[in-house]
Amino acid sequence: MTIPLLEVTGLNAAYGQAQILFDMNLQVRPNEVVAIMGRNGAGKSTTFKALMGHLKNRSGSVKLRGESIEKLPVYQIARRGLGFVPEDRRIFSDLTVLENLDLGRQPPREGAAEWTVETLLDVFPNLAAMPNRPGSDMSGGEQQMLTIARTLMGNPYLVLLDEPSEGVAPVIVERLAKLILELKAKGLTILLSEQNLSFAAALADRAYVLDRGHIVFEGTMAELSANEAVCRAYLTM
Amino acid sequence: MYDISTLFAQLLNGLSYASTLFLVASGLALIFGVSKIVNFAHGSFYMLGAYVALTITSAMPSTSWGFWGGVLLSALIVGLIGCLIEMTVLRRIYSAPEVFQILVTFGLVLVFQNLIYEFWGPDEVLAPRVPGLKGAASIFGERIPQYSLALIFVGPIFLGLLWWLTHRTRWGRLIRAATQDREMVASLGVNQKTLFTVVFFLGTFLAGLAGALQIPKESANLQMDINIVVEAFVIVVIGGMGSILGAFLAAVLVGVINAFGVLFFPQAVSVLIFIVMVLVLIFRPNGLMGGRIIPQRPGDLSIDQPFRLPSKRMKLATLIVIAVLMLLPMVASSYLEVVMSEVFILAIFAGSLHFLLSVGGIVSFGHAAYFGLGSYAAALVATRLGLPMGVGILAAILSGAAGGLLFGWFCTRLKGVYLAMLTLAFAQILFTLSIQMVSFTGGDNGIVGLSRPAWLNSHTGYYYLSLLAVTVSTWLMRRALYSPFGFAFRAGRDSAPRSAAIGMNVARIQWAAFIVSGAFAGLAGALMAYHRGSVFPNDFGVSTTVDALVMVLVGGVQSISGPLIGAFAYHIVAVELIRNLADYWRLILGLFIIAFVLGMPQGIVGAFMHRFGKGEK
Ligand SMILES: Nc1ncnc2c1ncn2[C@@H]1O[C@H](COP(=O)(O)OP(=O)(O)O)[C@@H](O)[C@H]1O
Ligand SMILES: [Mg+2]
Q1: DSSP string covering A138-161, please?
Q2: How far apart (Å, rounded) are the C-alpha atoms in residues B52 and B77?
Q3: Are B570 and B550 in contact (CB under 8 A)?
């Protein structure tokens, strides 16, 4: 068994007085795609914010490649090779595609896939078609691609991908799925969150199901798809 | 009327001033954009730039190179001081509530004023004319100083430079990105601390440069800071918070309005500018060029525990305190009676601010407006109409409420910093009017000679009146908090969208709160007017607002007794002691405010509660 790339133990997180995550444990191994599944409000985005250090009110241990990162500030976590694509996309709408990409740039990292603007534009041909367009003039799907590409410019070991399919047209969702598989083939490790079983089933190796901040199921994607009770209780079909 | 050549000359003067305004406002906009801090001390860096440049240019050889080199060097020094302040003070308050940030930067204003006074003295200083630009050009027969003409180009040049910086360099792109969404910038591995420091350097450099460039035109004086910063705020608000191009357009607009205003409405120039700002905000609530900015969550005044209804024990304690205060005149000196009367009056004022601020979540940074409306209404009724004190007080309450009615209507259309700036702007309009409408308000000399009825003439009599007023006011405001209105109001504060969803009109409730708050502030103003026997423009001034904010802060925002205790502590301990230190009170007060916000943001009552568990509020 390989050592986990990301190992989370006993993660608790709260907004003010309201505790949202309870004692979460999860692992992601190199080159895996792992899905965190759960309905709206289950705590998926909160998990990512807590891992990334945006949510300060948290406890538990988070290890990236065996190194504790839970005490580091956000930018340090990013510099250790954890990439984050937040749910509301958050491209810099004032900046062009190339400028957005440039801001994501970090030095190459030993043992992680290395990206440049050229290689990324190969993978994202629709971005290549609009290098100087400001973010505010892009469609939702294009913005989603741009956020992913921008994060990859940091040559991360692992990307946290928060509900990539949310609010994106069905055609684009399909393209996104293909793209994520392509990234995986290039050696990327991904932890994504998702409500929808079919999208995740096409991509992920393993899944955790989250309900009101508790992990209620963990297993391979095939086991989850076969477990009708869990699917019916906690997921959107 | 004026002929074309005069108008054209005025236009050029306006454009020349616009350059100064743009340098200051663009720095403010940059700092606000990235750090979200409303830097009240920005004008202080401008003032510092002027004084430092006076010293440096006089030490340099009197050639063009000497002058321009000296100006640049002065701006660099100011920028470095800005850096230092960012790293030691501001860095600690990036996630604090806005009011605290504004207070800390106001503390810096006081510190700077005092230090500059120490180093350069109280007198106005004018720099010699600039080598190489000593003459005046003749344009359509009007003579315009060459230096003013040269300044016209400084604005566009720096607009170009800033555009280049923000569009063609990685640092500049980071600044633009962080202006929109600084959390995301951190997620990409950028150390924001460095970014903040760099931006603060740049912003204060620009302010220092503007101040240094101003000295051949205008003598350096100790009022430069507040005057320029209020104008710069207006420009940043008109242009759109954080937008450089917006700041440029607004600076030109304001500069030109200023120049023509002087010709046509010499009495009301600043009012004119504020009116333009209000119009812009009504039609474009984000300013001319204000873009989409992701709000960064921390910053609300969090009141963790809701106010509780008073317990029996608490009621008893209150009664005991009132009883002690009633018996106090038996043993107290008349000096203490006077001081305590002031404490009571200030407590009403602070209480009215507290009502709006911590309870309603509305940052009123121009609360002096209602206080001044009250004091002037009372003074006018008493001296112009010769009516008795009761009528004066009633007029003051109504004036304060009317102010709340009018200003609240505008203010409840806005949020956050814009709201704070608009409240400040209204107070500044009144402040300016009270100085400029000399025949009506007495100008700088204010109005003197308010007299009290014979039975209130003794210090003891006035002591009891003030005690009665503060007791009744606090009780009424407290009642308002526990009424359905109060609950609705607090719901609006805690979650505006949710309250809107359950059918409450948040804006309307906040508007009502403005009126109530204005009425009580007006009452406080009137009581103070009769107490002193006089009123002055400073009743509308920024420092009056800050006094109230500090009292609320010192007492703690989380409890109703906060303002009372804050007024007591601030007025007795801080002000009375500090003012005895004559020349240093601003420095000490400024440092006190900064230290208090950094060290004890929950205030005295909050700290007490924290210490002794879940006591009563
Ligand atoms: N900023 C916040 N402050 C307080 N509560 C929040 C905040 N963001 C999310 N929550 C709450 O946390 C819970 C989990 O939210 P989230 O992690 O966004 O869920 P998901 O991403 O699975 O839809 C929800 O109940 C939500 O209401
Ligand atoms: Mg989510």
Answers
A1: S-HHHHHHHHHHHHHTT--SEEEE
A2: 8
A3: yes
Nearest ligand to the C-alpha of residue A87? 2
On whether the CB atoms of residues B20 and B213 are closer than 8 A, the answer is: yes
- Which positions in chain A touch B183 (Cβ < 8 Å)? 54, 74
Check residue A52 and report its DSSP letter: H
Listing DSSP states for B449-498 in one string gives -----GGG-SHHHHHHHHHHHHHHHHHHHHHHHHSHHHHHHHHHHH-HHH
Q: Taking CB atoms and an 8 Å limit, are B173 and A102 in contact across chains?
A: yes
Distance between CA atoms of B21 and B10, rounded to whole angstroms? 16
The pair of three-digit structure tokens given for residue B42, joined into one six-digit string: 């920005």
Between A16 and A150, residue with greater pLDDT? A150
pLDDT at residue number B482: 73
Distance (Å, whole) CA B230 – CA B550: 20
Contact B277, B234 (CB under 8 A): yes
Q: Where are the beta strands (DSSP E) in B335-431?
A: none
Q: All domains of chain A, ordered by start, with CATH?
A: 6-234 (3.40.50.300)
Q: What is the mean pLDDT of residues B265-279?
A: 79
Rounded Cα distance between A146 and A132, Å, is 12
Which residues are within 8 A (CB) of B582 and not within 5 positions of it... i.e. 6 or more apart? none
The tally of CA atoms less than 13 A away on the side-chain side of residue B50 is: 31
Question: Is residue B374 classed exposed, middle or buried when 0-12, 13-18 and 19+ CB atoms within 10 A define those classes?
Answer: buried
- Is pTM beyond 0.90? Reply is no
Stretch B453-473: mean pLDDT, rounded?
89
Rounded CA separation B457/B439 (Å): 29
- For B269, the 3-state DSSP assignment is helix
Ligand located closest to B297 CA: 1
User: Which residues on adjacent β-strands are paired with residue A19?
Assistant: A14
Which residues have CB atoms below 5 A from the ion given as ligand 2? Answer: A 45, 87
Residues with Cβ within 8 Å of B69's Cβ and at least 6 positions away in sequence, in order, are B60
Helix, strand or coil for residue A15? strand
Residue type, B153: F
At residue B358's C-alpha, the angle toward residues B309 and B614, to 5°, is 45
